Amino acid sequence: MPHALAARLEARAIPAAISAQGLVKVYRSRKSEVRALDGIDLEVEAGTVLGLLGPNGAGKTTTVRILATLLRPDAGTATVAGFDVVRQAQEVRSIIGLSGQYAAVDENLTGRENLWMFGRLYQMSSTAARQRAVELLDQFGLVEAADRVVKTYSGGMRRRLDLAGSLISHPLLLFLDEPTTGLDPQGRLGMWDVIRDLVREGATLLLTTQYLEEADELADTIAVVDHGKIIARGTADELKSQVGGERIEVIVHDQADLDRARQLLAPAGIGEPHVDEHTRRISIATDRGAQGLVQVVRDLDEASIRINDIGLRRPTLDDVFLSLTGHESESTE
Amino acid sequence: MTSGTARARSRTGVGGLRQSASDGLIITWRNLKRIPRIPELAIFAVLQSIMFVLLFAFVFGGAIPLPGGGNYREYLMPGIFAQTIVFAAATTAIGMSEDVHKGLIDRFRSLPMARSAILTGRTLSDVVYNGGILIVLMLSGLLVGWTVRTGLPPFLEGVGLLLLFAFAMSWIGVWLGLSVPSVEVAQQAVFIVLFPITFVSNVFVPPQTLPSWLQPIAEWNPTSTLTASLRGLWGNPNPYASTGFPSQHPVLVTLLWVVVIVAIFAPLGIRRYRLMSH
Fold this sequence. Notes:
The complex is a heterodimer of chains A (333) and B (278).
Chain A: H1 4-11, E1 18-28, E2 33-44, E3 49-53, H2 60-67, E4 75-80, E5 83-84, H3 89-95, E6 96-99, H4 111-121, H5 126-139, H6 155-166, E7 173-177, H7 185-200, E8 204-209, H8 212-218, E9 221-226, E10 229-234, H9 236-243, E11 246-252, H10 258-265, E12 270-276, E13 281-286, H11 289-302, E14 307-313, H12 317-325
Helix pairs in contact in A: 4-5, 4-6, 6-7, 9-12
Chain B: H1 13-37, H2 39-60, H3 72-86, H4 88-101, H5 104-109, H6 117-144, H7 152-179, H8 183-199, H9 215-220, H10 222-234, H11 245-248, H12 250-275
Helix pairs in contact in B: 1-6, 2-3, 2-6, 3-6, 3-7, 3-10, 4-6, 4-7, 4-8, 6-7, 7-10, 7-12, 10-12
C-alpha cells in the first residue's frame, strides 16, 4: 500500500494526489452571503500528510467537503488522484475515505454491522465485507465492543469506528475532518496513535484541525486557513519559527520582586523579557526548552523569589494567528 | 491489496440497475434494524392508533349514530388504518431528517454507492414498517368488533392499497425530511400537515355534517377515498357515501392520488437531495 498511490499516479503522469486551484464557495441565505472559501489552492503529494489548520468557520470543512465530492465549488477546480471532483465524482468516491467531525456511524447498528454495511456499499461481496470488518475491529481495538450497539460507545470508540469505516476499501487517500475535536485527552492520544500508524503505512492524508499541536504531531506540511484563504504554509518548524517558538512565563508573588526576577530570566532566553506589571507576569522567548525552565526555577529559588506560577508555553494556534494576521483566531461559527 | 474490490463497476445499464437495487436493499436492511433496537418507536406508533380507536369508539362513538344501525367501531377501523398510513409520512420525514443531521447522509454520499439507494431504501423500509404496524392494528381491530365481511382477495386488495398509499406518503416524508432545518421542525411540520388531512375526511364523522364548502374537500381527500375503498372492499359500513365521483369510485381515485403524489413528491425529494451538494 505505501507506494500504491504514488505508482498509480506516476503511471498516469499525474503530478499530485490532491490538487485544487482557486476554490470558491459562497453560502447564500435570504439575509446574508458568506464567502466560506475565497480562492483556496492546495497540493498534496502522494504519501504525505497535509494539515489544514484554522479556527471554526475558516473554511476547513468546506474544503474537505468539496474534495470528498459532497459539495460543488462555485468556482475553481480540484482533482483527487487525477479525477475531477465534480465530473468524475463516483471515481473519486471509490478511492477515498472520509471521516467527519460528527462521527457518522449508525447509532442503532453494532460496530460490526456498521462496517459490514459500509463494505457492502463500497460494492464488496457480503463475505469480503464481513472479513474486512473483523480485520478493522481488531486493528482499532473494538473487538470486545463489536456486537454492541454504537449508542453505548464512548466518544473515542465512535471516532475509531468512524475512521475504521472510512478505511474499509483500503482507500488511497484519506480525509479526516477534525478527527479529535471533542475527545478527552486520552481519546485524542489514542486517535493520534491510530493516525500515525496509517501514516507509517504510507497513507496520503488531508487532515483538518484547530490545534497547532495536532498538526505538528501528524502533518508533514501545514496550511493555515483563515476567512476562506490560505494565509501561510510550511512545515510545523517553519511556522513556529515565524511565531517565535517557546516562551518561559513566570508570575511572581510580590510586585517588589518583578525587577529582580526579570534580571534572572534574561540569560535563560533570547532577547528582552516582557514584563506586565499589572499581572506580575514576566515572559521571555527561549530556545532551550525544558533545560531553560529548570535553570530559571533554580535561579529564582536561590534568590528566594516567591512565585505563583511558572511554565514553558508552546505557541498555540492563537499565537500563529496573532503573528500571521495580527488578530486572534476568532471563531466565526 | 484488495483495493480493487471497490473499484468502479459498470454503472450504466443492467450493472447500474443491479447496484441500485442491492444498495437500496442494504439501506432498507439498515433502516429496519433500528426498529427492534428502538422498540419504543413502534410501540408508541401502535399505541397512538389504539388510543384513537378507544377515544372515538367509546368517547365520541355514542354521539355519532350510523343510519341503518351499523356498528360504529366497524365503520371506524378502516379509517384508523388509513389514518395510520397517512402518518407514514411522519416516520419517513423524521428518519430522513435524523440521517441528515447526524451526518449519515454525508457518509453515504461519500461512498461509491447508487445515489438513489438512500431514498428508495428509506421509502421501502417505511412501507415494511407500516405493514408491521398494520398487522398489530388489525389484530386490535378484531378485538373491538371490526371484521372483514367479504373474502380474502378483497381483503388483500385493501392491504395492497394501504401499502401503495404508504409508499406515496413516504415520498412526501422524504421531501419534508430533506427540506426542514432540524428533526424537531420535521416533527412539527408533519403534524401540521397531517392532522387536517386525516380529520377533514370521512374517517371519524359523516362528511355531511361538515360546512358545505368543506364537503368537496373532504370527499376528494385521499384519506377519505382510501377509507371509503377499504369499507367497500371489506364490506364494512359506509352509510354516508354521496353520489359524487370520489364516493362512487374510491379505489380509482385513491390510485390516482398515489400516482399524483409520487409524481410530485418523488422529483421534489430527489431535487432536494441533489441540492445538498450546492
